[in-house]
Amino acid sequence: MLLIIVLGFIIPWLTAPYVYNHAPKLFYTVAPVGALIALTLNQLGIHLGLWKVHHMPMVVLLDSIFLDFGIFTVVSVWFIFLLYYKQKNPLWVYAAFILGMTGIEAIALAIETVSYDEEWNLFYTLLMYIGGFTTLHILTRKLVALKIYP
Hints:
The protein is mainly α. It contains six helices and two strands; from the N terminus they run H-H-E-H-H-H-E-H. The chain has helices spanning 2-22, 26-47, 65-68, 71-85, 90-110, 122-145, and strands at 51-53, 114-116. Helix 2 crosses helix 4 (71-85), helix 4 packs antiparallel against helix 5 and helix 4 crosses helix 6. The radius of gyration is 15 Å and the shape is globular. The termini are far apart.
């Protein structure tokens, strides 16, 4: 559990002040949506038995909460920050974040922090990350159209 708290919650949030100093609006718009997407999908997957997070099996909600409010939330903010505030090439940003998060999940599988059911695999995980990041991008386009940012 300590590994998940440090790597999945504390370290990601240590990077957040940089983004907050440059784009504080992201923490009031994108971060809650990123956390909501992560929490919803993780709890759905855990309750459907598609995957397990192996650190606190007695309290199902706590299985992924440090990840949902940690790395997944902070990564969503970094994703939009690089796309809209740093104006990086969307193809490279999508590729880096989708493959990066899928790679982190592959490492979590290898060290047995996460396990998949027979019906689930890394390809489906990749598709979930594509859907999550695309949802954030669509939301951001709406926020830009409403002149909320950048």
